[in-house]
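can u pls check wat happens w/ 2-deoxy-2-amino glucitol-6-phosphate
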Amino acid sequence: MCGIVGYVGPQQCTDILVDGLRRLEYRGYDSAGLAIYDGKKVGVVRAVGKLQNLVKALREHPLEGSLGIGHTRWATHGRPTEGNAHPHVAGDVALVHNGIIENHLELKRQLVEQGVKFSSDTDTEIVAHLVHRERQAGHDLATSLRRALALVHGAYAVAVIDAKQPDRIVVAKNASPLVIGFGDGEMFCASDIPAILPYTKRMLPLEEGEFGVLTRDGLELTTLDGKPIDRAPRTITWNASQAEKSGYKHFMLKEIHEQPRAIEDTLRGRVDLHAADVVESEIGIDANTARSIQRVYFLACGTSHHAALYGRFLVESIAKIPATTELASEFIGRDPVVGPNDLVVCVSQSGETLDTLAALRVAKEQGAKLLAIANVIDSAIPRAAGSSFYTHAGPEIGVASTKCFTTQLAAMVLLAVFIARRRDVLDKDRAQSILQALVEIPHQMRSVLSLDDNIRDLARSLAGARSALFLGRGVSYPAAVEGALKLKEISYIHAEGYAAGEMKHGPIALIDADMPVIAIMPDDKSYEKIASNVQEAKAREGRVIAVANRGNADIGAIAQSVIYTPKVDPLLSPLITTLPLQLLSYFVADFKGTDVDQPRNLAKTVTVE
Ligand code: AGP
């Protein structure tokens, strides 16, 4: 997730902007830059890597002035290089952007045909050129940005300055955050409150479709099409650390609540509902590969392995190709047989996990076709694979993965539908209903996240448990094993995720009144069977907590507690049932007082075998 900061006022702003970017570091970034108006022109300095590299570059090429914008970039389109870092410049215009421009390929093609030369691979530079084109046509900066954004589909928070109108920053927001800070004779903007909290406590978070012109005198706030908006700033009472977490107690809880947005970003520009298809240029494999492969082999570790289990389920049920999922560390520990007819999909949020990288290398040596599903652009696994499909969860700070997992699940749906459509095994109507249900998932997720308080109460009663069993069948099995992993990672309660049908083959011996049994049982073809398994647990006095669909009138007779979730397409239910399990683990851990964001013995990126 990129970070934006901007300043207009009487002070020299270089330090204010760098300081603001430092306070946005928690959002994750791979390059940074500033653009400052020096009285004559806009100067730009950018650097790859940490902010100290930008500070060093600023020592060599100082920027001075009291109008400026700054940016930390989390790469989504184009590698993390200096050329791709923001601000992007076109003529006298300098622009920073957070978000994803969906129709960037089409807009870029049009601009190239008009003779525009691009100096980066980013979607953002397109917007800078669009604004510049409007400036050349004689429009003022605000009108130029409005006219440019009218052509853009996608998510954005943008801030733009221009040497020919150097008294203002013009900003706009659609689906990416931007907050305006009100100083005394000075104004600020930023992606998040902490960036500017040391300078002002009077803030106005922009809402969707809002547009602002910031000058020393204040803010002129309108809609994108120019209708005035009258809204007063509010006073922020958070301290800096609370502000970083947007008021949430932990990053993990914040990231759980960010999931609807993360899924929207991961789907953005990739789903063609009209054609009932997935956009080929976005998915990392081409139609020939999709048609020719005879097997899909998923390799991953930990939570990503659980997403891969869901991928296996979908590839078999939607794309009708044999699929296997294996722990990367086991794959390299034996003599696996894969070859040119196999598509090996390595799944990793960090893109750096050594076991997964080593497994990818083994598959590569054997001539398999490769695809990486990763969240960090240009990380080791996508680079080694050569083909990549990025999730757009944004940086995940909590060690226990949440939003990266659900965006991986969404990626699996896109991959399976893409392959299925190429092989003519999924008719248009069914593809359309799956994709339509997928784009509605963020909305359903929001309704589950609003159950927060009920789940907190349930968690209180689990905090004393020594062990817990998570059961799922079919499509819910990956959610069960992920639920168990979350609980053990952050609460240190022993938990097992089990295929419900296996319970009678061993784990049933563990069940007694002290054993919570969490059963994931949405309405699908496995429901009757898992209901029987749960009855078996209940008969042994197991304390059953069911995750079931709203409207299920029978579940109350089987389970002691029920978390009701909205009914979605049965194939997509893990995208929903996962959320209450994350919340349950989170609240149990919080009651126990563990270090939720940095649980003992765990690392976010595991680069040892
Ligand atoms: C998830 O909560 C864990 N932190 C861990 O299992 C993680 O998923 C695993 O180490 C794999 O990481 P990766 O997705 O970055 O490859």
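The mean pLDDT is 94.
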